[in-house]
Design goal:
single chain, 151 residues, mainly alpha, 5 helices, 60% helix
């Protein structure tokens, strides 16, 4: 009797923990915004820093929470970290362009000022996206796991 109960429970649970294959990253697709509900810009508005991979990873983290036991807070922090890395990479790229002007060229300092505005915008947009997902992830139905089960 106990063996039958154990087997029935195992079969029942195996259906609950069924792995869902998340599609591979496609750089041509915009992953920013919940699919079918809202689409946000997948790059920074004032620079070429792309948030698309961060959005993809965030979607994947949310979708696989039953399998990976990632909490919403973890997924959201990783999202912020990846967006900030994109901003940092863009900062390095833009600053290297400014250095091409030469140390005493006034255009170099104008370029640096412009880069500071662009990157400040990038970090601000990153913080805004993080604030949005961390407060709205559950209410709009994007994050469907119960974090209390992962503690």
């Amino acid at each position: 009797m106990r063996l039958r109960l154990f087997i029935a429970l195992a079969v029942l649970l195996s259906g609950c923990l069924e792995e869902v294959e998340f599609p591979p990253y496609d750089e041509k697709k915009n992953y920013c915004g919940p699919e079918g509900k809202l689409s946000g810009p997948n790059k920074n508005l004032l620079s070429d820093a792309s948030f698309n991979y961060a959005c993809y990873y965030h979607d994947k983290c949310y979708a696989e929470c039953q399998k990976t036991f990632n909490t919403q807070a973890y997924c959201d922090r990783e999202f912020k970290r990846l967006m900030d890395e994109s901003c940092d990479a863009e900062l390095d790229r833009l600053m290297s362009k400014c250095e091409e002007y030469g140390k005493w060229n006034p255009l170099r300092y104008a370029c640096i000022g412009k880069v500071r505005v662009q990157i400040s915008s990038c970090w601000t947009q990153s913080a805004a996206y993080y604030g949005l997902v961390s407060t709205a992830g559950k209410p709009i139905g994007s994050y469907t796991c119960d974090d209390s089960k992962f503690a």
